[in-house]
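Working notes for the structural subgroup meeting. M.R. asked for a predicted model of this chain before we commit to crystallization trials. I am recording the input and output together here so anyone reviewing the notebook later can reproduce the run.

Input as submitted:
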Amino acid sequence: MGGASSARRAADLPSPSRGPRPAMTSIGDLPEDVLVELLSLLPARELLRTCRLVCSQWRYVVDLNTLWKRKCQRDGFYRQSYDRIISDWKIFYMLCHMKKNLLKNPRAEENFQHWTIDANEGDKWKIEDLPGAHGSHMSDPRVQKYFVTSYGPCFKSQIITLDKEGYWNQLMDEIRPEITVKDWYAARFDCGCRYELTVRLLSKDWICLQEFHPEPVVIEQWSDAQWREISHTFQNYPAGVRHIWFQHGGQDTQYWAGWYGVRVTNSSITIGPPSSL
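Returned structure, recorded in token form:
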């Protein structure tokens, strides 16, 4: 019995030739570049809300520019030319990741939902299918419908509240990302029309901090009926922007009953990284 017990005890001892078993390596023992690679696979929300709170080492790694540059590479937001101009890859990534059209129902796919009708004179606003009578198709095949005005002034608008779209106050005040506005308009071949656009950056108290309001565009009768794009980017605007107000519309210039006025569709407002970031 004694011999068997001694044999069992000997078997439990580490082999002199192998030495003690090494302790299991934790994720915290990984080299920094490996940890950056692993954490860059996680969603940004998890990195900021969970991983950054694990320990001081993880907080340091999550705040590294190299991690967010790697995420930009993974998600297709990276170009080699950015290397010399991007100072904060985390903010750059967040703005690229969040970028979307903030205007709802821009292509008339949901009737007039999300739009406020500000003026509806003549025979009022109407929705038609592309290309429409005496019209033309757009280059973007996703656009199948448009809004059309009548012989009296027709205007419609939307208000965007930025914090509801994920753009927090500090971001808008300190980073001041670029706000790009685009709109598409066209006339019928057989009738002239007038097009107008107004976009305002508003404070929380609805005070206008900056405005884009170009001269109205008048398209003469017998034009080519091609779709035209108008675009403007707000940069270096004042701090305090909390809302964006977008309004467009117009009317025909022949005063014909029906829907011979300007056609509008595919409007957009997007927010992206400032060129100085």
